[in-house]
Amino acid sequence: KRSLLEAEKQGAEIVVFEIDTFGGRVDAMLFIKDLIMQAPMKTVAFINSKAWSAGVFLALSCQKIIMVPDGSIGAAEPRTGQETAETPPDPKTVSAIRGQIEALAEARNRDPQLFAAMVDRNVEIAGLKEKGELLTLTAATALERGAADHLAQNQQEVFKALGLEDPIVVTPSPSWSETLARILTHPTIIPILLLIAFGGIFLEIMTPGFGFPGIAGIIALLLFFGGRYFAGLAGWEPLMLFVAGILLLALELLVIPGFGVTGITGISALVISLYMVLRTTSILFWEVAFSQLLFYMAIMGGIFLILLFFLPNNPIWKKLGLHKKDQEKEIPEEKILNYQSLVGKKGITKSMLRPAGIVEIEGRRYDVVTRGEFIEPGKMITVDEVQGNRIIVQIEREV
Q1: pLDDT value of position 398
Q2: 261 lies in a domain?
Q3: Tens-place pLDDT, residues 332-361
Q4: 87 with 10, same domain?
Q5: Which residue intervals of 108-163 are DSSP H helices?
Q6: Which among 16, 66, 121, 393 is placed 20 to 30 Å from 2, CA to CA?
Q7: Cβ(279)–Cβ(290) under 8 Å?
Q8: pTM of the prediction?
């Protein structure tokens, strides 16, 4: 998009797209196709090796198609990642993509049936393709059948085929933000970012203070949503919804007794925000976003269960949670069968209550929570209420 805008701004007469691709995402393909179709200057596709799958759409979007002699074009059957040998592509999806490519071929005065055969294996073309196969054309056959206009070995031969002598050539390069977005939206990087984000944020929620896990989680979260934003695949709305979900979950887990509407709303906000950034521009491919969403939800749930059940029982975790920063000797905690006896007793905060933390009452340490307020270390508190093993305290007010 940026390259086309720059070309238009500089008064370019022709834009040549060099294509060498196995294919790609349907939403990205349709987006680029529309940009090429709407370009005010003459557009030329130079297939310097292969234009398979989504590459067919990009080449067909251009007014002229030029191929290297050993190039190929075709095999554009849509895939959602759910197909197997027993389950062919969804007929509804195939029909929609076939309609798109036929309309595109008609707009560029090329044979719609020829390009439909690249998408739909049920299309039969006598002497060229039997039913049940996908069509892929060599450069020579593409030229013979009108799917290509010229053959050219290199860029200079492309210019010669277009009747250009000594043209001024400007070759744009990706900006830093485009390169970053390409990295951050890579299928391998996305799960890693979400793993760091969920793990860091949940770890921070379940421990007193604020440190490296929270910082790492926030940075990973910004990179995940920022990558989609810079790639033009999402706005900032999903990020804001995700943050709201995290805050609601934190409120439910740390402040509000039990689990109810607040927690359910928080989880719903997280799910919706992830779906918003994973969905494609075509409603036909919602299954892709949904399957990715289930995968990332499994990651999130696994991290939460590990932190909730494994870490609190780990001796190292307990040690980190109970030690004071000055490494003073820990006072042994005796098991108390009836916490109700603590109601009304006073104590001193030994860690920051956010609102959970550690207090010392009569020489013993206890895990406590407040009713939502934050209390600094060294403050006098009073046990206000006990709910089972949940000790609720409040700051001692001066009279």
Answers
A1: 61
A2: yes
A3: 444 444 688 888 899 999 988 888 889 999
A4: yes
A5: 112-119, 139-145, 155-161
A6: 66
A7: no
A8: 0.58
